[in-house]
Amino acid sequence: MDDVRITPSGQFDNHAREYAHIEARPLAAAMGAEIVGVDVRTIDDAAFAELSDALFHHKMIYLRGQAIDHGDHERFTRRFGPFGTDAYTKGVDGHPDVQPVIKEAATRSKAIFGGSWHTDSAFLPRPPSISTLFSVEIPPFGGDTAWANSVLAYRMLSPTMQRMIAPLRVHMSAVANFATQIRLNGAATPFSSDDARSQAIDGAYHPLVRTHPVTGEQALYVDESYAVGIEGMTAAESRPLLTFLAAHVTQHAFTCRLRWEPGMLVLWDNRICLHHASNDYDGYRRELYRTTVEGEVPA
Ligand code: SIN
């Protein structure tokens, strides 16, 4: 039998690389690392180059004890490139590219923002390349975020499945996620404008297996939130395949999980990993701020 949960030994090496200006401390076997020795307000070009390398290598990195305001967050994000589009919010006052991700202690919600496995804004023609989250207030327990390494998940498919899916294009749209939120909450997270809403619902077609523009790694581009169809297939044909792939990509062995603390800045490579926010801290406030970097057309 080979239909058991996968143990990906030897398929991905999450050891830290040797750096001169930063230190990386791996978080899990599958992905993730803490970066120490860096203040993102003052990081120089040499350390920034190493931090970028660590981000691409570990897929998700985090830094503790960052005393940054929205302006610092924006400046650091801009070092990676222009801001990405956020379909959901207009940003905080005076900082349109800094998106609040806040749940109040009194809020009760069956579906929270980011509360299912997803890759950010996959419905855009150019989804963000990199996303960041900065934590201000964190519950005493709960509210963790998990990430899944979709390069590793791709490598753990059989060569036959890899060949079969290689030419396919996935339809990424917010339509199903939107409907789920309305069913569970009675309303969906509002979009920043009617145009943003139409774009998110119409969505975009992207390669189901995408190639990282810097590292050349191949990754599954699929999730349970936005992957709603496959170009040229009927829904009856695409649904079983997408259901399998969305479950495959997020299985435990491919993930890491972060216990937040205030003052953490997390960055992830949105092209090659998925993430999932936990909705398990009713009665406590959680306050984070997100920025994204504009990505390329997936290839
Ligand atoms: C997100 O999907 O960007 C939010 C993740 C989180 O709140 O943990």
Key words describing this protein structure:
single chain, three-stranded antiparallel sheet, 23% strand, alpha+beta, globular
General description of the model:
The protein is α+β, with helices and mostly antiparallel strands and 299 residues long. Helices cover 24% and strands 23% of the residues. The protein contains 7 helices and 15 strands. The strands form 4 sheets. It has a 7-stranded mixed beta sheet, with helices on one face. Strands 12-6-14 form a 3-stranded antiparallel beta sheet. β9 and β10 form a beta hairpin. The protein is globular. The mean pLDDT is 93. Bound molecules: succinic acid (SIN). The site of succinic acid has 9 residues, from β14 and β15.
Summarize the structure.
By secondary structure, this protein is of the alpha+beta class. The protein has helices at 45-58, 70-78, 150-155, 159-165, 175-185, 194-202, 235-249; strands spanning 23-26, 33-36, 60-63, 99-103, 130-137, 145-149, 169-172, 204-207, 209-211, 218-220, 227-230, 255-258, 265-269, 273-277, 286-293.
